[in-house]
């Protein structure tokens, strides 16, 4: 069974009707915490995320499989069954699984599952203890509720792109997308937190289940945090600062003789130490730069002074000196640098698992570290329909002949190896 034997959510069963990224990210987090996650995919097609590549996993013979890096990143610690939700028989299977589950997660368009009797009201009528979480682009209410949405759209509409990138007029200036699916990840994390809270409310306080409405739009907007408050308090749109921070100076990229480093002087004492190290104690004594507020107002004057000094030495020389001085600085790494970093090895950040098609698949370990219930067991993301037999016989008591008949009609798919 996927999950850790003594993990915090051992004994919780999740029916995962979601696909692509936000929903699967939420259910993967819950699976990491020890819940049993049953992922339902469409026969003959599977989760659309399987096809978003290259790169794709290579099998034991070196051949390319249909398992994309995208899919592998969001679907560990799950079992996959392939069931056609558009058929009455498939709907009956899902209803049976919902009755046997604690949680159901879906990210269909608003109203789509109601056509099949698989919406929150329908499934919770049969199982009042069910926690039913819906993740959509814009939520279950509001004028945009029926719209579809992807991460790039949400980053644009919620203002993330207006905050990211170089200022207008500078090289490469203009609104810029964050380089990963930020709104999907945020909505998945909010969903996982909400699900755990709802389970606590149900079990610790004796309440029933409930429906949870997670909007990618809401999640992305909430995560604007201090930038949202900047606007709400001032009425002014925050500006783009490239690698710099709007309210801390210096906090940005600096060019050295052989490349770039990142440096943050988060308070006035750190700035004074930095100026001593740079051989420019006069800057810390200058009233224009003596406090962070003054440095923010006068960044255009200060930063060129610092840039000239950093150009005089190499990255390695500066980083060694900055670390010795107890200042916050580091390299700007590519992912090849990141995964070669000794700290990554020391923290056992990469875990390797045996997949149905490959022996040694690397995954990024959960960042949640528990002292009493460690998350130390991981199962590989499943192939399409890999566990259909096990789940339908084990949870619903279906017999081989019944499964054979359903498979022959295309209602289920069994023991798939990607699709």
UniProtKB/TrEMBL annotation:
Keyword vocabulary terms for this entry: Transferase
The keyword Protein transport is annotated on this UniProt entry: no
Keyword match Disulfide bond: no
SUPFAM superfamilies to which the protein is assigned, alphabetical: CoA-transferase family III (CaiB/BaiF) (SSF89796)
Pfam families with a match to the protein in the record: CoA_transf_3
InterPro entries noted in UniProt: CoA-transferase_III_domain, CoA-Trfase_fam_III, CoA-Trfase_III_dom3_sf, CoA-Trfase_III_dom_1_sf
Domain of life: Bacteria
A GO MF term: CoA-transferase activity
Name assigned to this protein: CoA transferase
Species of provenance: Enterovirga aerilata
């Amino acid at each position: 069974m996927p999950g850790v034997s003594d993990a915090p959510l051992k004994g919780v069963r999740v029916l995962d009707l979601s696909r692509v990224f936000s929903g699967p990210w939420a259910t993967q987090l819950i699976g990491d915490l020890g819940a049993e996650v049953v992922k339902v995919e469409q026969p003959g097609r599977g989760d659309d995320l399987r096809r978003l590549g290259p790169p794709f996993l290579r099998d034991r013979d070196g051949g390319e499989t249909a398992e994309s890096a995208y899919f592998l990143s969001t679907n560990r610690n799950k079992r996959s069954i392939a069931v056609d939700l558009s058929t009455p028989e498939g709907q009956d299977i899902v209803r049976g699984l919902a009755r046997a589950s604690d949680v159901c997660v879906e990210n269909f368009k608003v109203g789509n599952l109601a056509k099949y009797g698989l919406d929150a009201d329908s499934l919770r009528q049969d199982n009042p203890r069910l926690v039913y979480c819906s993740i959509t682009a814009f939520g279950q209410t509001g004028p945009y509720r029926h719209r579809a949405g992807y991460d790039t759209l949400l980053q644009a509409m919620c203002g993330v792109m207006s905050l990211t990138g170089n200022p207008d007029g500078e090289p490469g200036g203009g609104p810029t997308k964050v380089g990963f699916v930020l709104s999907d990840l945020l909505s998945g994390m909010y969903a996982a937190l909400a699900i755990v809270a709802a389970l606590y409310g149900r079990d610790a306080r004796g309440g029933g289940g409930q429906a949870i409405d997670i909007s990618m739009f809401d999640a992305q907007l909430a995560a604007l945090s201090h930038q949202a408050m900047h606007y709400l308090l001032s009425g002014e749109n925050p500006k783009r600062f490239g690698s710099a921070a709007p309210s801390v100076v210096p906090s940005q990229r600096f060019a050295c003789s052989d490349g770039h480093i990142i440096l943050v002087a988060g308070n006035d004492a750190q700035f004074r130490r930095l100026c001593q190290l740079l051989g420019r104690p006069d800057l810390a004594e200058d009233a224009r730069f003596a406090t962070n507020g003054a440095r923010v107002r006068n960044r255009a004057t200060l930063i060129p002074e610092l840039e000239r000094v950093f150009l005089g030495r190499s990255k390695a020389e500066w980083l060694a000196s900055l670390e010795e001085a107890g200042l916050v600085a580091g390299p700007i790494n590519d992912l090849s640098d990141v995964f070669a970093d000794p700290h990554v090895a020391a923290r056992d950040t990469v875990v390797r698992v045996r997949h149905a098609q490959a022996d040694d698949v690397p995954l990024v370990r959960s960042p949640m570290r528990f002292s009493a219930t460690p998350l130390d067991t991981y199962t590989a993301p499943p192939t399409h329909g890999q566990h259909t037999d096990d789940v339908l016989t084990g949870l619903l008591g279906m017999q081989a002949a019944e499964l054979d008949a359903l498979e022959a009609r295309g209602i289920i798919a069994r023991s798939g190896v990607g699709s």
